[in-house]
Design a protein that fits this description.
Keywords: Hydrolase, Metal-binding. The chain has 6 helices and 9 strands. The chain is α/β, with parallel strands linked by helices and 214 residues long. Strands 1, 2, 3, 6 and 7 form a 5-stranded parallel beta sheet that branches. Strands 4-5 form a two-stranded parallel sheet.
Length: 214
């Protein structure tokens, strides 16, 4: 039996996110949605985010534009990517003020944050949630399910799985994936492991520095 913390990045997308929410509701699975702030300026996209929160899903900040990773940006740009999204999220955020940096294809490393971004997250008591399983549904909309099943088998401990509610057709496979995973013994709704939470309510864990560029 493997615990799965299910997350979705890069939405909300009015053509896709409602269908994802329908599947999650039918399967009684809760997830965390990390939203691209600029998309919330579209009322239809914001309505998707409001529905997700109303249905018990957590909402997090996934930068304003999902451009270059923050560790490669200037101090002012990196802070603006976080702060402007926080402002757009408003009451959609919970007390943990969840944040996920973009890694550029799921990579982990010091390119995720620069010092200004890290200091801002600490000062504003954010919780950073990273990942340990990225089946690349954004690049392989048909084949990602098999990749994800392999990751559920291979990752030791709780799996923090990253999917994307994007309009590339990948989420048409979501219901099948959830059903197969549950039949194989996966339990969704697990808390993320400590090594995927390097910052918790503004308090850095021992490994936080490895995600911050000099």
């Amino acid at each position: 039996m493997v615990g799965v913390c299910l997350t979705f990045d890069n939405g909300p997308e009015p053509a896709v996110t409602p269908g994802v929410l329908d599947v999650l509701a039918r399967r009684r699975v809760t997830a965390t949605f990390f939203l691209v702030g600029a998309k919330l300026r579209d009322p239809a996209a914001r309505a998707c985010a409001e529905r997700a929160k109303a249905e018990g899903h957590a909402i997090g900040n996934h930068t304003l534009t999902h451009g270059a990773p923050l560790g490669t940006r200037s101090a002012a740009e990196a802070v603006a990517e976080i702060a402007e999204t926080d402002a757009l999220l408003g009451a959609l955020q919970g007390p943990d003020r969840l944040f996920r940096p973009n890694g550029g294809g799921g990579r982990l490393g010091p390119h995720l944050l620069n010092r200004a971004a890290a200091d801002h997250l600490i000062a504003h008591r954010h919780t950073v949630l990273l990942w340990n399983a990225v089946p690349r549904d954004f690049a392989d909309p048909e084949g990602w399910v098999a990749t994800a099943h392999g990751m559920l088998r291979d990752v030791r401990g709780t799996v923090v799985l990253v999917l994307h509610d994007l309009p590339n057709g990948a989420m048409r496979q979501l219901d099948r994936f959830l059903g197969e995973a549950e039949q194989a013994g996966a339990v969704f709704g697990a808390a993320p492991p400590d090594d995927c939470v390097p910052l918790r309510r503004g308090v850095p864990a021992e490994g936080f520095a490895q995600y911050v560029s000099d």
